[in-house]
Amino acid sequence: NSTNMGTSPMGTLPSGLGICTTAPDIFYLPELVFGGLVWILVASTHVDPPNPLGWVMFVSVFCFIMTFLWTIIFAAGGHRSSAGWAVADFVYHGLAAFFYLSAGVDLAYITLLKKGDADLKIYRTDIAAVVFCFVATLLYFIHTILSAIRWKNF
Predict the structure, then answer these.
(1) The domain containing residue 34 runs over which residues?
(2) CA distances from 149 to 12, 14, 78, 118 (A)
């Protein structure tokens, strides 16, 4: 199959260190890094207003924990290369991409509203969080597309 980026075909689910060399699983670590950065940056500023920024915190914490658990399951071989796991991988990453997109839009809007009245350090931190949120969105979106290709080839 010419669509694979690693050592195993797109129609199989890797385990162990194979998740570090195959697409779409190679995206787990960057998703954790950028999602964790969003979580840290938003938590380090004032979560005001609480409603939209509470959603951003929920998305970043939920996706970080779920992606970490997903990584552990795949690395430990708990998925047993079944088609059900390929579908679940596609569905989870699609949902995470949608969640991060909505959180990124909320965060960008709130950051834009606070432009004039925020401390410059907090404003720059919020801008960094917006950028990392959209990078996380992109990573989850790419993972979703590659998971759909893998599911189709399963």
Answers:
(1) 27-153
(2) 11, 15, 21, 44
In sequence order, the 6+-apart residues with CB closer than 8 A to the CB of 116 are: none
**Distance between CA 71 and CA 32 in Å, rounded?**
10
What tens-digit pLDDT sequence spans the chain (154 residues)? 444 444 444 556 666 666 666 778 789 899 999 999 999 999 998 777 777 888 999 999 999 999 999 989 888 877 766 778 889 999 999 999 999 999 999 999 999 988 877 688 888 999 999 999 999 999 999 999 999 998 888 7
Number of domains in the chain: 1
Query: Cα-flanking dihedrals φ and ψ of residue 13, to 5°?
Result: -105, 120
Helix, strand, coil shares of the chain as percentages rounded to 5? 75, 0, 25
Residue 20 forms part of a structural domain: no
* CA-wise closest residue to 56 among 138, 141, 143, 132: 132
